[in-house]
Amino acid sequence: MREAADGGDGLLNVFVPHATAGVAVLETGAGSDADLLAALRDLLPADDRWRHRHGSHGHGRDHVLPAIVPPHATLPVIGGALALGTWQSVCLVDTNQDNPHRQVRLSFLS
To answer: Do residues 67 and 22 lie in contact, with contact meaning Cβ atoms separated by under 8 Å?
Structure first.
């Protein structure tokens, strides 16, 4: 990203091209990441309520996740660096245990 920004300002778009993943901006390391996963378990339990039934038990919930945690985020870049808040991190959120491989696409607009 530093090469693309070349010390300038712009926007970085982070996109995850997967049907079961999202991108979140949140504090990590102080329990917020675990709290997010707990909230997602409460909102999207891995049980038999889901009509989408292939894959592991409760996998249908994984396909609903991107409606709650979108598969993209647009972030400000100032002086070639991400301009996040002090405690903010960009996180890939994926509850899908059936596919351990993910891609992340980055696009920079100056």
So the answer is: no
